[in-house]
Every structure is written in C-alpha cells, then in structure tokens.
Amino acid sequence: MAAVNATGTDNAVTLHYIFDPLCGWCYAAAPLVDAARGVPGLHVAFHGGGMMTGANRRPITPQWRDYVMPHDRRIAELTGQPFGEGYFEGLLRDTGATMDSEPPTTAILAAESLRTGGGLDMAHRLQRAHYVEGRRIADADVLAAVAAELGFDATAFAAAFKQLSGEATAQHIAESRQLLQRAGGQGFPTFVLTQADGSAGRIDIGPWLGRADEWKAKLAEFVGPSMAATATATRADATLPVCGPEGCAI
Which residues in the chain come in under a pLDDT of 70? Predict the structure, then answer.
C-alpha cells in the first residue's frame, strides 16, 4: 500500500491505532494494544476517529440496546473481554445518556498532553468505564473522575481538557479520518504498521483477537530489517468486523 505519513513518528517503527472510545470492536482489540505497548522498539500512536460526533451522536434507546447487545456478546465470546451489569442493565437502559465520542476523545488528548502514554491509558480506562461500569463517558464530571483515578492532577487535567476542546479535537479527528482513508481502512479499529521511511502495511488483527501473547511475539518480528516484507504479507483483508458511524458489525 502507499506510504502513510503521520506526525510524531519520525525514525520509529510505529503501530498506528485508528479507533473510537465508543467502538465495541476497539474494546475487543484493547488487549492487543496493551500488548503492543510492551514490544521493545515499537511506538504505538493513537488516532481518534470521532465515530459518534456531530450528526452521528445518538441517545441511548431500547432499540439501540437491542442492536448493540448481539455484537457485545460476540466480542465477549471471541476475546474474553468483560461486559458488566452496569453496562447491560445500567447504561444501556439509561435513556437520558447520549453516545458522543468528542468529549472522551478530548480527554484522551488531554491525558497524552500531560503524560507520554497517558492517552492510551485514558482510552483503555474509559473503555472499561463504559463497557464494564456503565458510566457516561461523554459527561465532563465522569471524565474528570476517571482522570483522577489515573493519577492526573485535577487542575492540570481541567486546563488541558479546556484547551483541547472544540477546534483542537475536531482537527485531530479530521486527521485521523484522513489517515484511515489513506490506509484503506474500512472502519474502527484499523491498525497500520509503518517504518521510519514511511512505508506501511495495514494489519488484519482478526486472527489475533484473544491471543495477545502471540500477537506481541508477532509484532516483535516486525521490528527489524525484514519488517517491510512481513508487514506487506500480513496486510488486512477486511475480515475483522469493524465499527462505523451507523454502529458495529457483528
């Protein structure tokens, strides 16, 4: 595939993770992202795609609960990722809640601005807050509480969140969508492995769901002189179910 250029990854082997905090299949891939962060010589970069922003924001309804529960059950079956009663019987019955990707994406950017690696820490904690605890991760008070749980100073986080709200988050989302398009991704999550020279290969993570240790070992093979051939050979064939603005595939 064509070269994929992204900021902040010069002279590094980088795994680009194009995702959304409200994407069920991104939650399915969370253990793979955690494993990738432990591969020596590999940088993991996140790109929030804004799946449920603007006109795509949606309220929780009984119809939405009926729609998402089959794919949530499928994710749990394939990966062992936990879904809590707070989510199934709490959030998915909370008709006053709104699914909005923008505030949690801003929180992720704020966390990264305060601590290298803090963005992915925040992303994964928000996924658990949503899918296990059933918390409203689009609400500012919930985001502040989660930041505190991760050890961020409340004043510093609030200032960073304010600074990165609005235009800065919109720009990040736009750049993430451009990257997704250049990579030929079909939705969220999409993983792209790039070399220092910018050449890239999109990786099908479907075979690795629920196999984080084996995935980590495979990624370690990619970080080396033979990476270009290996990445090309493992580029994605769109076999992994993905999420888009209209919901997640089963």
Answer: 1-11, 224-241, 244-250
The span from the CA of 110 to the CA of 54, in Å, is 20
Q: Are 202 and 6 in contact (CB under 8 A)?
A: no
- Of the candidates 99, 103, 137, 127, the one whose C-alpha atom is nearest the C-alpha of residue 247 is 99
> How would CATH label the architecture of 13-248?
3-Layer(aba) Sandwich (3.40)
Q: What is the amino acid identity at position 121?
A: D
- Give the E-state strand segments of 37-106 in sequence order: 42-48, 58-59, 98-99
Angle, helices 140-149/102-114, rounded to nearest 10 degrees: 30
Give, for 119, the enclosing helix (H) or strand (E). Answer: helix 118-131
- Going from N- to C-terminal start, the domains of the chain cover 13-248
The whole-number pLDDT of residue 3 equals: 40
Task: State how far the Cα of 238 lies from the Cα of 235, in Å rounded to an integer.
Answer: 9
- What end-to-end distance do the CA atoms of the chain give, in Å? 27
